[in-house]
Amino acid sequence: MLTTRQGIRPLNAGDLPAFLELTGRDPVVNVFAEYRARTTSLEPRWLGGEMWGRWSGGDLVAACHVGANLVPIEASEDDALAFGERALGRGRTVSTIVGPQLPVRAFWSMVGPSWGRPRETRWEQPHLEQRLPSRVEPDEHVRRTTRGDLAVLYPACVAMYTEEVGVSPEWGGGSDLYRARVMQLISRGWSFARFDEGRLVFKAEVACATPYAAQIQGVYVPPERRGEGLATRGMAAVAEIVKREIAPAVSLYVNEWNAPARTAYERAGFVETDRFSTVMF
Question: What is the pTM of this model?
Protein backbone atom coordinates (compact mmCIF):
# COMPACT_ATOMS: atom_id res chain seq x y z
CA MET A 1 0.00 0.00 0.00
CA LEU A 2 1.42 3.36 -1.02
CA THR A 3 1.55 5.76 1.92
CA THR A 4 3.20 9.09 2.48
CA ARG A 5 4.87 10.67 5.47
CA GLN A 6 3.34 9.64 8.79
CA GLY A 7 1.40 6.86 7.02
CA ILE A 8 -1.06 9.36 5.52
CA ARG A 9 -2.42 9.42 1.98
CA PRO A 10 -5.56 10.70 0.24
CA LEU A 11 -8.33 8.11 0.17
CA ASN A 12 -10.25 7.07 -2.94
CA ALA A 13 -13.27 4.98 -3.89
CA GLY A 14 -11.38 1.76 -3.26
CA ASP A 15 -10.96 2.78 0.38
CA LEU A 16 -14.67 3.30 0.99
CA PRO A 17 -15.29 -0.02 2.84
CA ALA A 18 -12.39 0.67 5.21
CA PHE A 19 -13.55 4.24 5.73
CA LEU A 20 -17.12 3.18 6.56
CA GLU A 21 -15.71 0.67 9.04
CA LEU A 22 -13.80 3.55 10.63
CA THR A 23 -16.82 5.88 10.90
CA GLY A 24 -18.87 2.96 12.17
CA ARG A 25 -16.94 3.09 15.43
CA ASP A 26 -19.19 6.01 16.37
CA PRO A 27 -21.75 6.57 13.61
CA VAL A 28 -23.47 9.42 15.47
CA VAL A 29 -20.40 11.56 16.11
CA ASN A 30 -19.07 10.68 12.63
CA VAL A 31 -22.32 11.32 10.77
CA PHE A 32 -20.94 14.23 8.70
CA ALA A 33 -17.91 12.27 7.53
CA GLU A 34 -19.93 9.16 6.71
CA TYR A 35 -22.52 11.21 4.86
CA ARG A 36 -19.80 12.84 2.76
CA ALA A 37 -18.24 9.47 2.02
CA ARG A 38 -21.51 7.84 1.01
CA THR A 39 -22.55 10.72 -1.26
CA THR A 40 -19.14 11.15 -2.95
CA SER A 41 -17.60 7.65 -2.82
CA LEU A 42 -14.49 9.55 -1.63
CA GLU A 43 -13.92 10.92 -5.15
CA PRO A 44 -12.04 14.25 -4.85
CA ARG A 45 -14.06 15.86 -7.66
CA TRP A 46 -17.25 15.33 -5.64
CA LEU A 47 -15.69 15.95 -2.24
CA GLY A 48 -14.49 19.38 -3.29
CA GLY A 49 -11.28 18.51 -1.48
CA GLU A 50 -9.66 15.37 -0.09
CA MET A 51 -10.20 12.74 2.56
CA TRP A 52 -6.88 11.88 4.18
CA GLY A 53 -6.41 8.50 5.78
CA ARG A 54 -3.77 7.40 8.25
CA TRP A 55 -2.74 3.76 8.00
CA SER A 56 -0.96 1.47 10.43
CA GLY A 57 -0.13 -2.15 9.68
CA GLY A 58 -2.50 -2.12 6.71
CA ASP A 59 -5.43 -0.78 8.76
CA LEU A 60 -7.09 2.61 8.43
CA VAL A 61 -6.82 4.05 11.93
CA ALA A 62 -7.91 7.69 11.44
CA ALA A 63 -9.03 10.10 8.76
CA CYS A 64 -9.40 13.81 8.09
CA HIS A 65 -11.92 15.53 5.80
CA VAL A 66 -10.21 18.46 4.07
CA GLY A 67 -12.66 20.61 2.14
CA ALA A 68 -14.34 23.85 3.14
CA ASN A 69 -14.51 22.17 6.54
CA LEU A 70 -11.59 20.28 8.04
CA VAL A 71 -12.90 17.47 10.24
CA PRO A 72 -10.73 14.90 12.06
CA ILE A 73 -12.35 11.45 12.18
CA GLU A 74 -11.63 8.89 14.90
CA ALA A 75 -8.32 10.68 15.40
CA SER A 76 -6.16 10.42 18.50
CA GLU A 77 -3.98 13.31 19.55
CA ASP A 78 -1.06 11.73 17.70
CA ASP A 79 -3.17 11.25 14.55
CA ALA A 80 -4.29 14.89 14.69
CA LEU A 81 -0.70 16.10 15.05
CA ALA A 82 0.27 14.00 12.02
CA PHE A 83 -2.61 15.47 9.99
CA GLY A 84 -1.52 18.91 11.13
CA GLU A 85 2.03 18.30 9.93
CA ARG A 86 0.69 17.31 6.52
CA ALA A 87 -1.58 20.36 6.44
CA LEU A 88 1.36 22.67 7.06
CA GLY A 89 2.82 21.57 3.75
CA ARG A 90 -0.10 22.96 1.78
CA GLY A 91 -1.18 26.05 3.70
CA ARG A 92 -4.68 26.89 4.85
CA THR A 93 -7.44 26.23 2.34
CA VAL A 94 -10.27 25.57 4.80
CA SER A 95 -12.72 28.04 6.35
CA THR A 96 -13.54 25.97 9.43
CA ILE A 97 -11.93 23.31 11.62
CA VAL A 98 -14.58 21.37 13.51
CA GLY A 99 -14.94 18.06 15.30
CA PRO A 100 -14.28 16.29 18.59
CA GLN A 101 -12.42 18.55 20.98
CA LEU A 102 -9.21 16.58 21.58
CA PRO A 103 -8.13 16.15 17.93
CA VAL A 104 -9.22 19.68 16.99
CA ARG A 105 -7.10 21.14 19.80
CA ALA A 106 -4.13 18.97 18.82
CA PHE A 107 -4.45 19.84 15.14
CA TRP A 108 -4.68 23.54 15.95
CA SER A 109 -1.63 23.38 18.19
CA MET A 110 0.31 22.23 15.14
CA VAL A 111 -1.04 24.59 12.46
CA GLY A 112 -2.12 27.62 14.50
CA PRO A 113 1.17 29.53 14.43
CA SER A 114 1.30 29.26 10.62
CA TRP A 115 -2.36 29.57 9.69
CA GLY A 116 -2.89 32.92 11.36
CA ARG A 117 -5.39 34.32 13.79
CA PRO A 118 -8.88 32.80 13.40
CA ARG A 119 -11.99 34.94 13.28
CA GLU A 120 -13.45 33.01 16.22
CA THR A 121 -12.77 29.92 18.31
CA ARG A 122 -15.40 27.89 20.16
CA TRP A 123 -13.62 25.29 22.24
CA GLU A 124 -16.52 24.06 24.35
CA GLN A 125 -19.46 22.79 22.30
CA PRO A 126 -21.50 19.97 23.82
CA HIS A 127 -22.38 17.28 21.30
CA LEU A 128 -25.90 16.10 22.07
CA GLU A 129 -27.97 13.08 21.12
CA GLN A 130 -31.63 12.49 21.84
CA ARG A 131 -31.50 9.48 24.15
CA LEU A 132 -34.28 10.28 26.62
CA PRO A 133 -38.01 10.76 26.13
CA SER A 134 -38.99 14.38 25.58
CA ARG A 135 -40.44 16.07 28.64
CA VAL A 136 -42.81 18.07 26.42
CA GLU A 137 -45.35 17.20 23.75
CA PRO A 138 -43.97 17.58 20.22
CA ASP A 139 -45.36 20.64 18.43
CA GLU A 140 -48.03 19.29 16.09
CA HIS A 141 -47.73 22.40 13.91
CA VAL A 142 -44.12 21.69 12.87
CA ARG A 143 -44.00 20.35 9.32
CA ARG A 144 -41.69 19.92 6.37
CA THR A 145 -41.28 23.11 4.39
CA THR A 146 -42.11 23.46 0.69
CA ARG A 147 -40.95 25.70 -2.14
CA GLY A 148 -43.96 27.88 -1.40
CA ASP A 149 -42.47 28.69 2.02
CA LEU A 150 -39.20 30.03 0.60
CA ALA A 151 -40.10 33.73 0.77
CA VAL A 152 -40.63 33.45 4.54
CA LEU A 153 -38.12 30.69 5.26
CA TYR A 154 -35.09 32.14 3.48
CA PRO A 155 -34.84 35.38 5.53
CA ALA A 156 -35.03 33.29 8.72
CA CYS A 157 -32.21 31.07 7.45
CA VAL A 158 -30.07 34.15 6.74
CA ALA A 159 -30.86 35.61 10.17
CA MET A 160 -30.00 32.35 11.94
CA TYR A 161 -26.73 31.92 10.06
CA THR A 162 -25.68 35.52 10.66
CA GLU A 163 -26.49 35.31 14.38
CA GLU A 164 -24.72 31.97 14.79
CA VAL A 165 -21.63 32.48 12.63
CA GLY A 166 -21.23 36.25 12.87
CA VAL A 167 -21.12 36.76 9.10
CA SER A 168 -24.04 36.82 6.67
CA PRO A 169 -24.13 33.90 4.20
CA GLU A 170 -24.93 36.51 1.55
CA TRP A 171 -21.65 38.34 2.16
CA GLY A 172 -19.40 38.53 -0.89
CA GLY A 173 -22.13 37.61 -3.33
CA GLY A 174 -23.05 34.31 -1.72
CA SER A 175 -26.82 34.75 -1.78
CA ASP A 176 -27.43 32.55 -4.84
CA LEU A 177 -25.36 29.71 -3.42
CA TYR A 178 -27.00 29.93 -0.02
CA ARG A 179 -30.48 30.11 -1.51
CA ALA A 180 -29.67 26.99 -3.53
CA ARG A 181 -28.61 25.23 -0.33
CA VAL A 182 -31.89 26.13 1.37
CA MET A 183 -33.81 24.86 -1.67
CA GLN A 184 -31.79 21.64 -1.64
CA LEU A 185 -32.76 20.97 1.97
CA ILE A 186 -36.41 21.64 1.14
CA SER A 187 -36.32 19.25 -1.81
CA ARG A 188 -34.76 16.50 0.32
CA GLY A 189 -37.43 16.84 2.97
CA TRP A 190 -34.78 17.96 5.45
CA SER A 191 -36.22 21.39 6.28
CA PHE A 192 -38.81 21.82 9.05
CA ALA A 193 -40.69 24.82 10.39
CA ARG A 194 -43.74 26.12 12.20
CA PHE A 195 -45.66 29.09 10.85
CA ASP A 196 -48.19 31.22 12.74
CA GLU A 197 -50.44 33.36 10.53
CA GLY A 198 -47.88 33.23 7.74
CA ARG A 199 -44.91 34.10 9.96
CA LEU A 200 -42.12 31.67 10.75
CA VAL A 201 -41.78 31.09 14.50
CA PHE A 202 -39.47 28.04 14.52
CA LYS A 203 -37.22 26.25 12.07
CA ALA A 204 -34.56 23.54 11.94
CA GLU A 205 -32.88 21.43 9.28
CA VAL A 206 -31.15 18.10 8.89
CA ALA A 207 -27.58 18.93 7.89
CA CYS A 208 -26.55 15.39 7.00
CA ALA A 209 -27.84 11.85 7.41
CA THR A 210 -26.75 8.24 7.05
CA PRO A 211 -28.58 4.96 7.62
CA TYR A 212 -27.53 5.28 11.26
CA ALA A 213 -27.85 8.93 12.29
CA ALA A 214 -28.91 12.44 11.34
CA GLN A 215 -27.45 15.73 12.52
CA ILE A 216 -29.67 18.77 13.12
CA GLN A 217 -28.57 22.32 12.32
CA GLY A 218 -30.06 25.78 11.94
CA VAL A 219 -32.39 25.76 14.93
CA TYR A 220 -33.95 29.22 15.09
CA VAL A 221 -36.77 31.13 16.76
CA PRO A 222 -37.19 34.84 15.94
CA PRO A 223 -36.06 37.06 18.84
CA GLU A 224 -39.56 38.39 19.51
CA ARG A 225 -40.91 34.86 20.02
CA ARG A 226 -38.19 33.45 22.25
CA GLY A 227 -39.02 32.28 25.74
CA GLU A 228 -42.32 30.69 24.70
CA GLY A 229 -41.10 27.09 24.49
CA LEU A 230 -41.25 27.02 20.70
CA ALA A 231 -37.72 25.59 20.35
CA THR A 232 -38.34 22.88 22.95
CA ARG A 233 -41.55 21.60 21.43
CA GLY A 234 -40.26 22.22 17.92
CA MET A 235 -37.12 20.15 18.50
CA ALA A 236 -39.18 17.39 20.05
CA ALA A 237 -41.28 17.34 16.88
CA VAL A 238 -38.31 17.45 14.51
CA ALA A 239 -36.53 14.64 16.37
CA GLU A 240 -39.68 12.53 16.27
CA ILE A 241 -40.11 13.00 12.51
CA VAL A 242 -36.43 12.43 11.77
CA LYS A 243 -36.19 9.24 13.84
CA ARG A 244 -39.37 7.91 12.26
CA GLU A 245 -38.60 8.79 8.63
CA ILE A 246 -34.89 9.59 8.11
CA ALA A 247 -32.48 7.98 10.61
CA PRO A 248 -32.71 6.15 13.95
CA ALA A 249 -30.50 8.56 15.92
CA VAL A 250 -30.59 12.37 16.08
CA SER A 251 -27.72 14.61 17.18
CA LEU A 252 -26.49 18.20 17.14
CA TYR A 253 -23.83 20.34 18.80
CA VAL A 254 -24.36 23.62 20.59
CA ASN A 255 -22.27 26.42 22.07
CA GLU A 256 -21.71 25.92 25.78
CA TRP A 257 -22.69 29.51 26.57
CA ASN A 258 -26.08 29.20 24.85
CA ALA A 259 -28.00 28.33 28.01
CA PRO A 260 -31.54 28.79 26.56
CA ALA A 261 -30.79 26.42 23.66
CA ARG A 262 -29.19 23.85 25.94
CA THR A 263 -32.21 23.94 28.23
CA ALA A 264 -34.56 23.49 25.28
CA TYR A 265 -32.60 20.52 23.97
CA GLU A 266 -32.42 18.92 27.41
CA ARG A 267 -36.18 19.18 27.81
CA ALA A 268 -36.56 17.63 24.35
CA GLY A 269 -34.58 14.59 25.51
CA PHE A 270 -31.06 15.42 24.32
CA VAL A 271 -28.04 14.49 26.45
CA GLU A 272 -24.35 15.30 26.05
CA THR A 273 -22.28 12.46 24.57
CA ASP A 274 -19.08 14.26 23.51
CA ARG A 275 -17.44 17.69 23.24
CA PHE A 276 -16.79 19.44 19.96
CA SER A 277 -14.62 22.46 19.12
CA THR A 278 -14.74 24.85 16.17
CA VAL A 279 -12.15 27.23 14.74
CA MET A 280 -13.52 29.71 12.16
CA PHE A 281 -11.60 31.87 9.71
Answer: 0.93
